[in-house]
Structure formats: structure tokens, C-alpha cells
Amino acid sequence: MLFDALVKQSEAIQKRATETAGQTIADVKVTASKSWDKLEKVFEAGVANALHTLVPTKKEFDKLSRSVAELGSARKKQRRPAHS
Fold first, then answer.
1. pTM for the predicted model, two decimal places
2. Could you give the number of structural domains in the chain?
């Protein structure tokens, strides 16, 4: 009788331990997923910032194109012989 009671008690403890472990694993998965999402957002923001720094915007490119055209015109004017 004592043996049967100990077996039942052990089975109950094992069942609770298994359920607790399963819940703990589920909690860890959720936490890891949230952490991974945060890391992914930080990485994406860093890449976006780097691209913005390295790749000119259309406005910046247009401004640079105008400056190059103005420099080309100024250079042509300087090369023309002066008529005196």
C-alpha cells in the first residue's frame, strides 16, 4: 500500500514537472522570438541608415548634376579666347 502511494505521488510529481518544463520551453520560445524580432528591427534600421548615408537621394543626385553642369559651363567660358 505504501509502495502504491509512493508510485502515484511520483507519477503526479513527474506529470507536474513535465507540464512545467513544457510551459517554460513555450515561454522561452516566445521570449526568444520577441528578442529576435527586436534584433531584426535594429539590423534593418542600421542597414537603412547605412544605405541612406552611402546612396544619394534623387534630390542630392540632381543637385550634384546641376553643379557639374555649372562647372562645365564655367570651364568652357574660361577656355574661350578673349576677343580684343
1. 0.48
2. 1
pLDDT in tens, 17-58: 999 999 999 999 999 999 999 999 999 999 999 988 888 889
Q: 26, 6, 3: which is closest to 14 by C-alpha?
A: 6
Q: What element of type H or E holds 74?
A: helix 58-79
The DSSP secondary structure of 51-67, one letter per residue, reads HHHHS--HHHHHHHHHH
> Helix or strand or coil: residue 28?
helix
7 found inside a domain: no
Domain that includes residue 62, residue range: 19-78
Residues near 64 by beta carbon (within 8 Å), at least 6 away in sequence? 56
